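Course assignment 3, question 2. Fill in each field.
Student: A.L.
Task: Predict the tertiary structure for the chain below.
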Amino acid sequence: MPMSDGLPFPVTITRVVQESPNVTTIYFDHAFSSKHGQFVMVWAPGIDEIPMALSYPDAITVQRVGDATTALVTKKPGEGIGIRGPFGNGFVIRGKTLAIAGGVGAAPLLRIGLEYPDVTFLLGARTAEELIFYDTLSSACDVRVATDDGSTGYHGYVAGLLNEINMDEYETIVVCGPDPMMRSVLKVLEGRNALDKSQFSMHRYMKCGVGLCGSCCVDPDGVCVCKDGPVFAGQMVIKSELGKYHRNAAGLKEI
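Answer field:
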């Protein structure tokens, strides 16, 4: 339910689930209607407002990386946060689907694996301890795992699992994860002529969430991740900055 007045919608935390040492799912007392892959701006009172994917209609999945995420993952049931949105576009799912996720990038793809009938889910993490949603997804779809250290599943990056995949079987390919992981997947898809059926969810620093501030613009086309994305076609992403550099809160390039 979009907020017509632009203000955060207050919700109360009902449950907190530790998914891995650094990732927590926070459930609240309101379910938001959204397209798979849309995001919300989450307000941690007194700290900051940051973009987060809805992992469930009534939950966000948070990786602890800074002040705002630390404030969120340390909250308890009964405490409040603010939700603004949902914003952006979402994934368009047609036919048999291949989902490729790295780390907390599994959050925007989770409902695709749970709600669509013919999904193969490639799930990557640095270690077995850091895999999230494996049990949940395994009950609903075909899940294949990769870990950087080889502690479970394929030993290597999740893109390596694509060696086992016949791209011709899939009508839709959806991808989300860290930039270097998505760039490696992009290169494989390009080499196997599968870019035209791929969609990538990009994450960038955001302030407004509605395309006004320009902090989440992507080179070279100048599209805004918040307004024009966060989901983009593979043909657009392959020519972008993804995996090469990004911009910090001051707009400066960071490799």
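Instructor remarks: Helices lie at 67-73, 110-115, 134-138, 179-191, 225-228, 234-237. The mean pLDDT is 92.
Grade: pending
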